[in-house]
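Below is just one:
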Amino acid sequence: MTIKPAPPVLARHLPELRADLVAWLRDPGPEGGPAIWARGHEPTLANTERQAADDWARALSIAELFAVNAPMTRLAVAAGAALPAYRLHPEDLPATHGLLAWEEPATDPHEGGNLVGAPIVGISWAVHGGGVHIRTWVHRDDWAHYMAQGDPRAGIRDLTPAETTHIIRTNPAMLVAMSGGYLPFGRIPGWLTSPDDTTDMSLTELEDLSRSATRQEQAERALVVTWLLMGQTLSTVEDVRAPRASEKRIARIDPNLLGTVRCVQLRHRNAAPVARGEQDVGRAYRHRWIVRGHWRNQYYASREEHRPIWIDPHTKGPDGAPILDPEKLVNVLRR
C-alpha cells in the first residue's frame, strides 16, 4: 500500500497550530482534550491523563516555538544516531518550555516493511525538577491513517470511513500526542523506556512496544542533538511570524499566545580548504580528501568538563590539489 505523507508543519503554521492544541486541551467538554485523553482508561489512569492534559495545556501556552527546516532535521537525525553518551544540562536547552516541529519526520514510519506507527514530527518539553518532561507529537493525517489500519495479528479490524472521520473530529488539532518521556539532568538518559509491568503483554504487544521505544529513542536523540546544534556556528536561528490572518485568529483564542517562531536552519557554507603548501606535523599533503561528519569532545572551562560538538563533513588538503575518491581508498593498519 502506498502511503501519502502528511504535509510538513512549517514555521508559519506553528503558532496557530499551538493555539488550537492549547484550546482543545483546555476544553472541559466531552470532546475536549482531557476527556479524549482519559477515555477508555481505568479511573486512576484516566485521572492521570486528565491532569496531563491540563499540565501540557499550561506548558504549551508559555512554550517558545521552534521550527527546524528539512536539511537541519536530516543532520539532527543522522548525528543523533552517532551521539555518544551525554549528560544533559539545563543550559543546553534553548528555553525551559518549548514546542519544536521538524519539517521532515524525525522517525521512519516503517520498520522491517511493517507499519509501526505514525512518524514523529514534533516534540514538546517542560523543565520540572531535575530534568525535562517531553511529549512526542505526530501529524493528525498520519495518525488517522495509522489508526484506521487494523492488525490481524492482534485481532483488530480496519476502521470504517465513518469511524475514521469520528476520531479525526475528536482530535481537531493538527498534532496528536503519541508518547511521553523524561530526560534527567546530569545523568545519561535511559533511551529505551518500558512500562513497569509487561507480564500480561502478548508477544505482539511486546514487539510493538520494542518498536515504539526505538522510535521514541530516535526522537529523543534528534531533540538533544537539535538543542546542541542550535548553540553551534553551523546553524542559524531567525524569527518567523505567523500570517496576519492567523495572528488575528490566535488573538481570539488567547491574546497571550505569541505568534513568533524561531526557525532553525543549517548554515550553508563552503568548506575552507587548507592553503597550498600547508604542512601538518612536518608533512606536506598533495591531495584533498573528505572528512566525514563526527562528534568531538570539546572541553569547556566554565563547566570543567567536555561537551560534544558536531564537526560537519568537510574537505581537507591543499587548495587545487586532486581529491581522493573515497570509494577507491584502502585503509592500511600498521602497528
Notes: Confidence is low (pLDDT under 50) at residues 110-115, 192-199, 269-282, 327-335. The chain is about 30% helix and 25% strand. The longest helix spans residues 203-230. The radius of gyration is 23 Å.
